[in-house]
Amino acid sequence: MSRTAGRRSTEKGGGSVRMTQISTTSNHEGFAIESVSAGVGRIVVDAFTETFPMDLTFWDPKRYEKSWASALRRVEEADVTTSCLVSSITDPKTANFISCWALYRIQSDIFVQNSVIIFDDLDHAFDPENPWLSAGPREVIDEDGNNVSEWRVDVEAVRRFRKGIGMDLSRRRAIESRQETL
After folding, report:
1. pTM (global) more than 0.85
2. Can you tell me the distance from the alpha carbon of 46 to that of 32, in angstroms, rounded to the nearest whole number?
3. Is pLDDT larger for residue 167 or for residue 107?
4. Calpha distance 139→104 (Å, rounded)
5. How far apart are CA 139 and CA 1, in angstroms?
6. 169 and 177 in contact (C-beta within 8 Å)?
7. Residue 28's pLDDT is what?
């Protein structure tokens, strides 16, 4: 089953579609993903910056950040791997899909694609603790022969970002903890 209207379908054995990539465009010497306000996130991949809506009915911003940290650790651990940053999720028991930024690491490069994982097209139950298990393989050409929009960032930029947020999250939690005791 193929998806159209600006979307990219990834076929996986038996013709089942596992993930649909959505196109946008751009490039910047860095990487970041963050919650910028209630229900709004932002990703930076080199010169590309985009804000995105984050549904807060299933996960709060801290839960998104925890998932992002796990996804980034995963992409740092192997020279060739797939991961994904969930950008919007509702309860998988009642939802049809999630939005994410798929990450494909090949040696020192990480390729990022804006994607949608459609639950009905999966051959297994979606696991919000391990969303990358539902991300399809990287494809750069869609079924119509068009290039899929993607951005490239060096793994070192992701490492710098993750190390930085680790310190920031620890510092923020320490401040929040002190404020609660006052």
Report:
1. no
2. 9
3. 107
4. 10
5. 16
6. no
7. 35
